[in-house]
Amino acid sequence: MPKMKTNSSAKKRFSLTGTGKIARKNAYKSHILTKMSTKRKRNLSNTSMVHDADMGNVKRMLCIGK
């Protein structure tokens, strides 16, 4: 049986934390930022955690676990 291939786009977008959670970047931070407040842009710069409902799909793309 061949090895499972990691999804190339997923490995660029997600990272695994030390506790086993999966971190992601927030959307709406790429262009047309002049109309956005500084506070909102600053808060979007931080990373967020992947929601529990999406965890299975993301782990499957990253070949984590079973």
From TrEMBL:
The keyword Ribosomal protein applies. Signal peptide: none annotated. Keywords: Ribonucleoprotein, Ribosomal protein. SUPFAM superfamilies: L35p-like. It comes from the Bacteria. GO terms for cellular component: ribosome. Pfam families: Ribosomal_L35p. Belongs to the bacterial ribosomal protein bL35 family. This is Large ribosomal subunit protein bL35. It comes from Pedobacter flavus.
